[in-house]
Amino acid sequence: MKSIKKIALVSAISASLLTIMGGAANASTSAAPDSMFVAYEGPGFTGRTQVITQCGVTNLRYRGSYKWYGAGQSGRMHNEINTRGSVHFTLPTNRNAQQKTGIGWKSIFKVC
User: Fold this and answer.
1) Is the pLDDT of residue 96 over 90?
2) % helix / strand / coil in the chain, to the nearest 5?
3) Where in the sequence is the signal peptide annotated (predicted)?
4) Whose CA is closest to 75, among 38, 25, 35?
5) d(CA 105, CA 108)
6) Could you give the CA distance from residue 86 to residue 76 in angstroms, rounded to a whole number?
7) What's the rounded Cα separation, in Å, for the pair 91 and 97?
8) Are residues 17 and 53 in the same domain?
9) What confidence tens digit (pLDDT) does each residue in 1-49 have?
10) Is 47 within 8 Å of 64 (Cβ atoms)?
11) Could you give the CA distance from residue 97 to residue 95 in angstroms, rounded to a whole number?
């Protein structure tokens, strides 16, 4: 009977530690800021928008103007869909950028 209680106690402590450690890991990643690219349909930040926060490749639906909020990740801009060809421009990791007029970029690779 004593060994069953000991096993149950060890299991409970292990489960608690895993929960605490998992929560700490999630808290650290969710607290980290994410860069964001907002593509606007029209010039001067007008019309419909496409908000891109995910990592990796995204094709741009709108190219009338854009805003970039640099917060830890960079954005590699390509003039072809699916980030084909060479990188045309890299948006910075640590500062914002914007352009009120149309852009030629057709896709972004957000580096995370």
Assistant:
1) yes
2) 30, 35, 40
3) 1-27
4) 35
5) 8
6) 9
7) 7
8) no
9) 555 444 444 444 444 433 433 443 333 344 557 999 999 999 999 999 9
10) yes
11) 7
Burial 46-62 (b: 16+ CB within 10 A, else e): eeebbebeeeeebebeb
How confident is the model over 58-62, as a mean pLDDT? 98
Q: Which two tokens stand for residue 100?
A: 């009120």
- In the chain, the number of structural domains is 2
Q: What is the pLDDT of residues 20-32, one digit of tens each?
A: 334 433 333 445 5
Range of the domain at 6: 1-32
pLDDT at residue 24, as a whole number: 38
Average pLDDT across the chain, whole number:
82
d(CA 49, CA 53) in angstroms, rounded, equals 13
One domain for residues 103 and 65: yes
- Cα–Cα distance between 104 and 66 in angstroms, integer? 11
Residues 17 and 83: their CA atoms lie apart, in Å, by 42
- Provide the β-strand partners of residue 53: none
